Amino acid sequence: MSKEEELPTPTLETPRSNASTSSQTSDDRPETGNYSIVVRTASKPHAGTSASVFVQLTDVEGNKTDKVRLKCSISHRKKFQKGHADLFMLVDQNYMSQLKTVDVWHQRRGRKDAWLLHSIDVIDHQTNMLYHFPCGNWLGHSSDDTYYNMNFVSLDAVGQPVSAISRKDFAPQNHS
After folding, report:
1. High-pLDDT (> 70) share of the chain, %
2. How far apart are CA 162 and CA 155, in angstroms?
3. From CA 122, how far away is CA 99, in angstroms rounded?
4. What is the pTM of this model?
5. Which residues of 119-135 are buried (b: 16+ CB within 10 A; e: fewer)?
6. Is 29-163 in CATH node 1.20.1250.20?
């Protein structure tokens, strides 16, 4: 008997959060999905916030991603500032069918944490579809500058999703 035959084959149990997006369920639907989220802060004075912002995606079937804090913007060192579009990645999330809503909220600690959210765009990397969720509302204070406690909003997708750029769009073309 060789050494290879004597040693048991190791097994690796992977939690959902570390699963690959290529894993499939019995109905040929991926178990996990990856999403790019672009959060746009309005350009009006004092529109930005230093508060922690969270999101959760929901699809038309009622499936939800984890509740995720948007920590590190890929596009800006200081996130959620006036006029900025901040890019975030959600990886190893529950796979979603057609997206329906984005719930977004922030932990407001004071008047400086009010935030004017312009919109959120989400790209589903499994389908390369882009979804648009307009907002245009303040979280943390009203338009007449009075203080109030709205720090949560549920945004509905508007229109039909559109196809985002895919890898094949960058493939070399044969020009004969």
Report:
1. 73
2. 18
3. 9
4. 0.75
5. bbbbbbbbbbbbbbbbb
6. no
